[in-house]
Specification:
Shape: globular
CATH superfamily of the largest domain: FAD/NAD(P)-binding domain
Structural class: alpha/beta
Strand content: 15-25%
Number of helices: 21
Bound molecules: flavin-adenine dinucleotide
Radius of gyration: 22 Å
Number of domains: 3
CATH topology of the largest domain: FAD/NAD(P)-binding domain
Length: about 500
């Protein structure tokens, strides 16, 4: 007999898990079907020879007391079992000959900036104020929506003026209205890598929200890594009668009479359901359902989507504590250029000697990740999917990991990041016990995100102004995750809550 669930959730990324946990807590019998063998999507880890590597997370925003994510983490059962480490300094940066450690306290940071750029004092204050206004408006907007207040589109600029202005502007234009010093602009923009587009293309509304979330409420790292968060949410699902099944890749969403009626996986598992929620993005969902079930207008929007950028990561397990080598930063942004748009272009061209990179030392934020006296480092740059003819594969992913061209190109690219890191950390290479390199293809393999995207679709001004709705033309088929809410782990969990509340009103 075919199985039945009240709700099937496709994908156990943080968004899918969170949606499932909320639905299960609301009394629905939920089954989550996940392609990989562990929960979390990008929020997972791997282990090698006593070193534990977080695949993705550097810093979680909104997580601390007073932060917007805090009540969600509470709902999801994360706060009961996962201690959160407040990161201070928040991060350090070099752009390119100017270096500073950024204190977690915003006033302290503001004072340091004013001391360094006295001529820009007014602009520093007005820019920080403008970003905080955006965050405040977004908070009001979210509370209004939750209370069922629907403000007509025409009245949005009156009711949420800072939000409306910022979401119609690029970060470059928004910032230029306040500060003009190139160095200072680069300092303010350093978190652009967390959003995947350079200042001229990036939505100012999104950037202001992310910046204030990190700088006002703090950046946090979960002890035990992002996998600890994923496991905690999985526990909540199980405790409320739900199930999470692994190595089940959904290949088909069945539709009858305009409603989703169930799903089918690559292993032949079929489950009928009253509700289907997908953590896979709209483009993938359209193919799983069949294009004939969607109106042209919807297909045109979905077809126009471009995945956000992917990344290249070098994971290092070291037999030395890098603090003893003089390296004390848990998160260090390195940019070779004040012009961050040029930096982005270099990345797109595969110039990994020049593209901005991040060096993250997890030993500072989560000391248990390395054996005694050792360290775990991550070297990361954004990276395009199509670099070197799709990383030497020509786009053929069958058995790509054994393809000698792929192996060579991947090793060479990783080496370029290592050479740059070594200049900052002399002796780094001699301390390496474990080294793994991940490419956009690795991202795809584990997440099935088109293009190995790490933030869903590109977070441009237009895309953030006109987001995809969690609702689809099929009323009981809903979407959650980065393609809907924007990238980032906090967003993913927020998106899970949103979709569950929509489901409650169906
Ligand atoms: C290296 C790296 C560093 C990052 N750093 C940070 C950071 O510091 N802070 C931050 O907030 N964010 C960071 N991010 C971004 C963040 O990880 C993602 O934006 C976020 O986790 C996306 O969550 P999601 O649930 O939308 O999707 P995903 O995590 O991609 O999850 C999607 C899930 O759905 C599953 N799935 C897809 N299709 C199917 C199918 N057909 N059948 C079954 N299962 C399916 C996938 O296997 C996957 O588990 C980083 C990402 C990377 C890669």
């Amino acid at each position: 007999m075919q199985e039945h669930a009240d709700a099937v959730v496709i994908g156990a990324g943080l968004a899918g898990l969170s949606a499932a946990a909320y639905l299960a807590k609301a009394g629905r019998r939920v089954v989550v079907l996940e392609h990989h063998s562990v929960p979390g999507g990008y929020a997972h880890e791997f282990k090698r020879r006593g070193y534990r590597f977080d695949v993705a997370l550097h810093a979680l925003d909104g997580a601390g007391p007073g932060g917007w994510l805090h009540p969600i983490l509470d709902d999801l059962g994360v706060l009961d079992t996962v201690p959160l480490n407040r990161l201070d300094p928040l991060y350090a940066l070099r752009v390119p000959d100017f270096e500073m450690a950024v204190p977690a306290d915003l006033n302290e940071y503001r004072n340091q900036l004013v001391a360094m750029f006295p001529a820009e004092q007014g602009g520093i204050d007005s820019l920080i104020g403008a970003m905080r206004d955006v965050a405040r408006d977004v908070g009001t907007y979210s509370r209004d929506r939750a209370a069922g207040v629907k403000v007509p589109q025409m009245e949005m600029p009156q009711r949420y003026p800072a939000m409306a202005t910022a979401f119609m502007s690029s970060w470059a234009d928004f910032m230029a209205a306040h500060v003009s010093d190139r160095q200072l602009q680069a300092v303010f923009s350093v978190l652009w890598g967390y959003l995947g587009l350079p200042p001229s293309q990036l939505s100012a509304g999104l950037y202001a929200m992310a910046w204030t979330s990190y700088h006002v409420n703090g950046g946090y790292y979960p002890i035990g890594g992002s996998q600890a968060i994923s496991r905690a949410i999985e526990r909540t699902i199980l405790d409320h009668g739900g199930e999470v099944r692994y190595r089940q890749t959904v290949t088909k969403i069945e539709v009858a009479d305009g409603r989703a009626v169930g799903v089918e996986t690559d292993r032949g598992l079929r489950i009928s359901a009253d509700l289907v929620v997908s953590n896979a993005g709209p483009g993938v969902v359209v193919e799983m359902v069949g294009r004939e079930h969607f109106p042209d207008e919807y297909l045109q929007r979905v077809d126009a989507d471009r995945p956000a950028v992917s990344n290249l990561v070098v994971y290092l397990g070291l037999n030395r504590d890098v603090a003893e080598m003089g390296w004390t930063h848990h998160e260090f942004f390195l940019s070779e250029d004040y012009d961050l748009d040029a930096d982005y272009e270099a990345m797109l061209a595969g110039d990994f000697d020049r593209a901005g990179m991040v060096i993250a030392d997890y030993t500072r934020s989560d000391p248990g990740c390395a054996p005694e006296g050792g360290s775990v480092l991550q070297l990361l740059t954004l990276a395009p999917w199509d670099y070197a003819n799709v990383w030497g594969t020509g786009g053929c992913l069958d058995g790509y990991r054994r393809n000698p061209d792929y192996r060579r190109i991947k090793a060479e690219a990783g080496e370029r990041l290592l050479v740059r890191a070594e200049k900052l950390l002399p002796g780094l290479r001699d301390a390496i016990e474990v080294m793994e390199v991940a490419t956009p293809l690795t991202n795809y393999r584990y997440s099935l995100q088109p293009g190995g995207s790490i933030y869903g679709r590109e977070q441009t001004v237009t895309n953030m102004l006109h987001r995809h709705s969690p609702k689809t033309p099929i009323s009981n088929l809903l979407l959650t995750g980065a393609w809907i809410s924007g990238g980032g782990m906090s967003s993913a969990m927020g998106s899970g809550r949103t979709v569950a509340s929509i489901a409650a009103s169906l």
